[in-house]
Design a protein that fits this description.
The structure is a homotetramer. Chain A is of the alpha+beta class. Chain A is built from 4 helices and 16 strands. The relative contact order of chain A is 0.24. The interface between A and B is medium-sized, with 29 and 29 residues. Chains A, B, C, D: It comes from Novipirellula aureliae.
């Protein structure tokens, strides 16, 4: 078990009455237990807590009147990751997958796996099915992209990234997801907190459905999969934006942190990690 | 109540063992009751029936060995549409919508509402909120597009359609969905059967969330919303393809039909119709 | 006649031997006479002066060794613009245009007039041919776009701009060019200096072929067409980048200026101005 | 010397007065001599012959009234190709190229070499400069694309082709051009006739500027570079469409032929061929 302290502080200048949809709180799943959780708003405000779907995604919704609004979240998260030998993790057959998993084979806004299927098949179609194939895709993405903040925007897609070869965590994730779907592996986007991420921020990574479980991968290699705390999952970043605003507000401050309680993460070389 | 006889026949030349995912059977919802339903396969085969999500979407999955496979579906559907005066149907506030509806505000594969938001806001942002605004968007789509089969492909998106100004039902739906989302109205894609559709085929139309209900619109104006039988709903056509194949098979035949039992549809001029 | 003092200073940190292609010097045309011209390099360097094509475009080419390189250009330009009553300027027939003009009807890198032809025809196809139609296109572009630096990149095209509705001078020009070509008017991109441009910079505007002449338009409305000094013309910005580098160099400074010698420009309300 | 008989017959149903721009006649260059040339129109009509630019491109322009119009072209072409040992052909330095060649380094409508530069550099940046590098790019294009008519349209670009991996001669050419420009080699599109092309049609291939000359390559490998007869050159297919119509006309027939007079082409294994 790994215990992780997470938190984030957001400050907004709200200029008009504005609807906030927040997705910053840790999900509760069989492998991720959240305790000592506080979410405070200054000034105080009525907040609606919503559960979305069945994967633990949560959402806070509120209408904020003009003011300077500080939002502070803190929690302790106990992770009991399932760890497997990568070589033991095979792929699932499309004829055997749970039906609700099939939706993660479909193309989505930022992951045009339909367009990239030929490319994916040509590059990765001949590899042995299993954990190693997803790892090979993530390695390819990691070695062919350069991590350069500011080179992509909120509308950049996996195809764009494949051609321009630069991006940030969200772009790495979108390209890896598209290539996995392109060879028939259901794959989804995970937003979360990552221990020791530099520079600190919310993180975006991926989860591939292999051998009946969802396994974590970080195509950026900026964080250990043993220190990833889930906020939510979706088809791509469109589903798990940390804050969606309807109205007018400017973000003045964003601080995000995640620390392992015992100062480090278990040292397991390249394990297959599942927490969903 | 309207009673509709629907059905379709598909014939495939299957060349290798192929996984079929079929989405051709009518959904069961509080307003759509399905009876006398038969789904036959010739040659006979084991088929898995799956329920997907909570909107009535169904899926049949089977692995077909090389053969010529005929799939015939027939059902009687009783529609008890809720009919409202359009002028009574207002828009819902994002602060009040059920959380599960919010996902239909997100951009999706073929509906880049993020890219089209400025266009949508400029053209339709000043219109009075409500049923009439969605109707205005559908009218705009209808009058600015030309219905020309063969001008779009499986990867054509709403942005493409907005520029090229031609397409088929799926393209009309994607553009209308994107523009609605662009002005803040949750909107989704509906696949189904349509009474008297010419030429007969599966149909694609849309549903906008207004005043606490999902209301039907057909941007192509090729069918009455009182004669639309739902197969499934999704973010866009990526979610409700009538047949997804993994393997190798060629479609040899497709016949689709939908007839109102009493020979016609209730004549209600431009009503607001809800069946979900 | 209008006399204009123009100039610009560029400073580069050159890190490796780098080939520079400069396009910053004023063109010489029958209506634009350049005098007192100096182009100085500090440190001094061998520079090759090239004439490109037959429209007055010039190019300086040099190989710069690692150093800090200052490039200063100054010139006096006498403009003898041809000024017409807009209402007297009709369109040319494609059957009558000089053959070398026809190339400016073709789509180009940033001006996908083939994709935008339907849109252009629908919006502007019914307007009376002539200067007024190009003016209407420029007005449409001006009123539908918002001038926001940083919202577009070097690969942004007219289609992107039409959808996202923001951009800078280059983007305004590309969209206006595409819409003009879309209704059959040869149109090209002009790079240059503009009197009183705020903030000062190189400017991008357009030239449409009407009634046997090239007429100037500035879709941004940031500068008077009577104070535009031509550097070069091309199909779009790809042809007239002010500096193309092969090697490694970073721009440290860019200053651009253009002043009318007698302090102002002739006050002619919305004239049709031709200098090519 | 190779003597080639070329020709083509086009038949149009002209429904309204229509402007035709034809680009089907062989260019005259120092290495391509055209004789016994006939271009006949049935019914007879006034045709304007235009020379475009300085590369031998020609254009016929005429206004056709409603009728059924047959256009027949025939000519004898003597090719005196310059043939080099590929290993003797190096690349030119951008600092040394003739200025008019530099324009073929710019991105163009269907060849977004700016977008593809990173990809090109990564795949081909480390290869030895020279004829062999262009050959390697053409080989890559040939082996990664599948020749499938009907999978691309008039607006398909090199980026699209790189992702979808299918296309026809024009698409092969656009991708090869973009990749060459991406590594700094001026490259252009050539339209023409090709001996023994199957199925017979106008052909699209490319020319790269190496060692002071333009060398021919056919990325489709459907024709020998020794049997290519040039119609025209341009930045991409946008510049050399065989027929551009303004008005309304439908093509009823297209026949194209090209035969080597002595029944075959000189057998030179993979030579470096220059005719411009």
């Amino acid at each position: 078990m790994t215990q992780i302290q997470i938190g984030s502080k957001l400050v907004y200048e709200v200029r008009q009455p504005t609807i906030f949809l927040l997705k910053i709180t840790a999900a509760t799943t069989p492998h991720q237990v959240v305790s000592n959780e506080t979410l405070t708003f200054d000034p105080a405000i009525n907040v609606e807590n919503c559960q979305i779907g069945f994967d633990g995604n949560r959402l806070q919704r509120m209408v904020v009147q003009p003011c300077q609004m500080s939002i502070t979240y803190q929690a302790t998260v106990d992770l009991t990751s399932e760890i497997e030998q990568p070589s033991n993790v095979s792929e699932s057959q499309a004829s055997q997958m749970p039906p609700e998993v099939l939706t993660y084979m479909n193309p989505s806004r930022y992951c045009e796996s339909d367009v990239l299927a030929k490319f994916a098949f040509e590059e990765f179609g001949q590899l042995s099915p299993g954990f190693g194939r997803v790892q090979a895709i993530c390695d390819w993405v990691n070695s062919h992209l350069e991590y350069v903040p500011g080179t992509t925007t909120a509308t950049t897609t996996a195809s764009d990234v494949l051609l321009q070869r630069t991006g940030v965590c969200r772009d790495y994730a979108h390209l890896a997801i598209s290539l996995c779907r392109g060879v028939g592996i259901p794959t989804r986007y995970v937003s979360g907190y990552a221990v020791n991420l530099q520079p600190p921020d919310y993180h975006g990574f991926i989860e591939a459905f292999l051998d009946g479980h969802w396994y974590l991968f970080d195509p950026t290699r900026l964080a250990s999969t043993l220190g990833l705390v889930r906020i939510g999952v979706g088809r791509d970043a469109a589903d798990v934006a940390f804050c969606t605003l309807t109205g007018s507000a400017a973000m003045l401050e964003k601080n995000v942190w995640a620390k392992s309680s015992d100062g480090g993460l278990p040292s397991v070389p390249d394990p297959a990690v599942s927490t969903a």
